[in-house]
Amino acid sequence: MRHLLATEGLGREQATAILDTADELKQTLLGREVRKLPTLRGRTVITMFYENSTRTRVSFEIAGKWMSADVVNVSASGSSVNKGESLRDTALTLAAAGADCVIVRHPASGAAHRLAGWLADAGTHVVNAGDGMHEHPTQALLDAATLRERLGPLDGRRIAIVGDVLHSRVARSNVHLLATLGAEVVLVAPPTLVPTGVGAWPVTVSHELDAELPAVDAVMMLRVQAERMTGGFFPSAREYSIAYGLNAARQRLLPEHAVVLHPGPMLRGMEIASAVADSPASAITEQVRNGVHVRMAVLYHLLAAAEEEAA
């Protein structure tokens, strides 16, 4: 695998290999006092974030360090970007400095693909940690890992993705990956928050949350991304919560085995009630925990798998 830029086009075999590797790494580290593997010793991993992040950035850093890579963090506010340096020049600078892998988050859709093109001759791998409203592939992979852990194989499972689908790169990545893994995906959102062209996606669309909940195996609540909104997409936070928030009453509509997910950060009381987020059905903390192992697996497949197979 050369880069990880999107889940669209990621084959079932390759996706399953990453998820299986994450499971193996999780079991390998279970109960170890020192969570350190020598797999990526001598490799340099650079995280380059042009947007704020807690979960993704921290978990990539921990993943690299647990695999003994040298991890360097670069932020827009602390780099030459503030002096007007272009993304291309920043990328070429990092590659010239010895980066084996660049993990990038950027507000522009397609930025990770452009980066991969610029670094094609440098031998540097690129991981998309979120580009605009386009994709966030490692989030989808960790969501799938969490669902497999709770539900087993995803073939035939029905997953509801609820909320601000229009602005969500998490939703887009999950739609493609979950469909690839055999799940049935239903998008539940107000009409104003459903993307145009959704008819080409492997999904069904609903605007009635209560009608969908009794028939799903998992419900993935999305963050309302106010920072990407330029108009009135719903009347008020209160009305959004009444129609699309997952509260305790709605949770009782779910099957007993159903799993609740949220990519974070959560808007408690609007998107999801605290009683639901902190309930046994919630796998939100597990998503964060699995995120470290999934990102370890991604780094392994990018930087070490081919060499180990050759050896």
TrEMBL record:
It comes from the Bacteria. The keyword Transferase applies. GO terms for cellular component: cytosol. It catalyses: carbamoyl phosphate + L-aspartate = N-carbamoyl-L-aspartate + phosphate + H(+). Its EC number is 2.1.3.2. GO terms for molecular function: amino acid binding; aspartate carbamoyltransferase activity. The keyword Transferase applies. It is an enzyme of class 2 (transferase). Keywords: Pyrimidine biosynthesis, Transferase. SUPFAM superfamilies: Aspartate/ornithine carbamoyltransferase. Catalyzes the condensation of carbamoyl phosphate and aspartate to form carbamoyl aspartate and inorganic phosphate, the committed step in the de novo pyrimidine nucleotide biosynthesis pathway. PANTHER family: ASPARTATE CARBAMOYLTRANSFERASE, ORNITHINE CARBAMOYLTRANSFERASE, MITOCHONDRIAL. Belongs to the aspartate/ornithine carbamoyltransferase superfamily. ATCase family. Heterododecamer (2C3:3R2) of six catalytic PyrB chains organized as two trimers (C3), and six regulatory PyrI chains organized as three dimers (R2). This is Aspartate carbamoyltransferase. The lineage of its organism: Bacteria, Bacillati, Actinomycetota, Actinomycetes, Pseudonocardiales. The gene is pyrB.
